[in-house]
Known about the structure:
Structural class: alpha+beta
Organism: Thiothrix nivea (strain ATCC 35100 / DSM 5205 / JP2)
Distance between the termini: 40 Å
InterPro entries: KH_dom-like_a/b (IPR015946), OsmC/Ohr_fam (IPR003718), OsmC/Ohrsf (IPR036102)
Pfam families: OsmC
Low-confidence stretches: none
Protein name: OsmC family protein
Amino acid sequence: MKARVKWLDNMSFVGESGSGHSVVMDGPPELGGRNLGVRPMEMLLLGLGGCSAFDVVLILQKSKQQVVDCEVQIEAERAEKEPKVFTRIHLHFIVTGRSLAEDKVERAIKLSAEKYCSASIMLAKTAEVTHDFEMREAA
C-alpha cells in the first residue's frame, strides 16, 4: 500500500491514496491554516470509523442480516502533552435493518474490533477503545 502527501501552501496538504483518491488536510487558523480540510488526527478517526463500519456491514451481510444502514459516531480523547496520542476512543454504532438479530450485530462489532479492523487494533495499542451499539428497524 502506498500513499502520498503533498504540501499545497500555508498549512494545507493534499493526501493521495494508492487507489487514486485525494483528500485535503488543513490546520486551524491559529497555526497558519485556513480550515479548508480535516486535520490529520481527524483523518485517523475517520479511517477507524470507515474500517470498522466496512467490517460490520460485510460481516452482517455474510450472516444474512438485512442491514440497510450503518453509522459510527466516534468520540476520542487525546493526551495533554506531546505526543498527543489518542488515549480513549469510543465507537457508537447505529445499525439499521430489517429484523436484525442483536447477537449477530454484537458479534460483527466484536469481530471487527478484535480480529479484522487493523485501524482499531493498531490504535488500541495507545488508547482504550470501547464500543457500543443501537439497532433501528428499517421502514
